[in-house]
Specification:
The protein has 372 residues and is an alpha+beta fold. The chain has 12 helices and 16 strands. The two termini are 36 Å apart. The structure holds flavin mononucleotide. Flavin mononucleotide is lined by residues 166-167, 169, 261, 317-320.
Length: 372
């Protein structure tokens, strides 16, 4: 029988044990780290005998025993089998996204088919509920600006807002009034109401958020807002205040932080969505909950875009940014408090450069409309 190492395989240490984790077909299996060397001998279709000959310092029995375990775990696949075909197909489809993205995706899927045994989520070893982390992030020593609380000015018809929303990459450069920024921040990130979760209060926003954990904080990079000097601020939703974290932000730095995208120099402000993981993980101690953090960021991004549009601003967003540099500017530790998404807005240029033209017949002519 010829065997090959699964292409969809990640090995790591967890709780002091070496784990071989083939995905999605196999189970995470704790093994001696020597398993890595044995797996290396199965780079291409190989018989256990050929592998044993290559691994001369190990006895054939040791290799046979390890091979049996690795086959059971799904780390070694038999030639011609359905599992090997699927493994190749997954490696092909996920291509350059492997191993990081495919591992996260598959290692956190089908979780509810076999729920982990043990204590209910959020309970400590003694069975006592873990204490709730603080609901809001605060920088009590930072200089702060309590923001105005005038009418938000969100009366634009919903249908118009929905269809007018576009990603803007060109802006007039005219400063955005601080009142407009304040309305946007309060509407998207401020608390709407507080609910009793049975162990304390949680708050809700205008966006749905997994478990109402509100693990995402907003950091504002001000470039051109009247009444605010350029710099990085944290939006404190509890006080409706901006806390100054670091002074100064130039258009060049904004573009640099957004992975050298030229348009990012032009908005009036950036908003960094940063997850405080503990607020989510204390309730959901499963890696799948990280998916929820990303989904939550998406919801906030959409509410931001619609609210900015309703306020007459042009919204933008980017998944391409310099994570560590942004974390540094926002005073985030980059470990338990880490940036996920960067939003931006400003007064939209009436005739934007770089706006894509509408597709005409030539574009449709070179487009496959339907997947078979
Ligand atoms: C999660 C996400 C990430 C994005 N990242 C970028 C980006 O890095 N650079 C950019 O210019 N646009 C980015 N965009 C904007 C998209 O290109 C834009 O939404 C798309 O072209 C559709 O246009 P519309 O938003 O006007 O409907 C991003 C959009 C989303 C939702």
């Amino acid at each position: 029988m010829r065997l090959r190492r699964s292409r969809c395989l990640t090995c790591y240490w967890h709780d002091g044990a070496f784990v071989v984790h083939p995905h999605p077909h196999g189970a995470p299996t704790e093994l001696h780290p020597a398993a890595a060397e044995i797996l290396a001998a199965f780079e291409d279709w190989t018989t256990p005998g050929e592998a044993a000959a290559r691994l001369g310092h190990l006895t054939p029995d040791t290799v046979d025993e390890a091979v049996a375990t690795l086959v059971r775990s799904g780390a070694l696949l038999a030639r011609g089998g359905a599992a090997a075909r699927r493994d190749e197909e997954i490696a092909d489809r996920w291509g350059a996204w492997m191993p990081e993205a495919s591992f996260f995706h598959y290692a956190t899927q089908d979780l509810y088919d076999s729920p982990p045994a043990g204590d209910p989520p959020g309970d400590d070893e003694a069975g006592a509920p873990a204490p709730l982390p603080p609901l809001f992030t605060g920088h009590p020593d930072a200089p702060r600006l309590l923001l105005p609380r005038g009418p938000a000015g969100l009366g634009a018809p919903f249908e118009r807002v929905l269809y007018d929303r576009r990603t803007h990459r060109d802006f007039t450069g005219e400063p955005v009034p601080v009142e407009t920024l304040a309305s946007l921040l309060a509407t998207v990130f401020g608390p709407v109401d507080f609910i009793d979760c049975g162990r304390g209060a949680l708050y809700r926003r205008t966006s749905p958020q997994g478990g109402s954990r509100q693990e995402i904080d907003a950091y504002v990079g001000v470039l051109g807002v009247s009444g605010l000097s350029p710099g990085w601020y944290h939006y404190d939703g509890l006080q409706h205040a901006l806390e100054l974290l670091s002074e100064g932000l130039t258009p060049e730095e904004a573009a640099h932080l957004c992975a050298d995208q030229a348009w990012a120099a032009r908005p009036a402000f950036l908003v960094v969505l940063a997850a405080r993981l503990e607020r989510m993980s204390v309730k959901y101690p499963t890696p799948r909950a990280y998916r929820v953090c990303l989904l939550d960021a998406g919801h906030l991004g959409q509410t931001f875009a619609l609210t900015a549009t309703a306020l007459g601003l042009g919204p933008s967003q980017t998944g391409a940014f310099r994570d560590s540099a942004i974390a540094g500017r926002c005073g985030l530790d980059g470990t338990g408090h880490t940036p996920l998404y960067v939003l931006a807005a400003g007064h939209p240029a009436p005739e934007p450069r770089d706006a894509p033209p509408q597709a005409g017949i030539p574009a449709f002519g070179s487009t496959t409309l339907l997947a078979r």
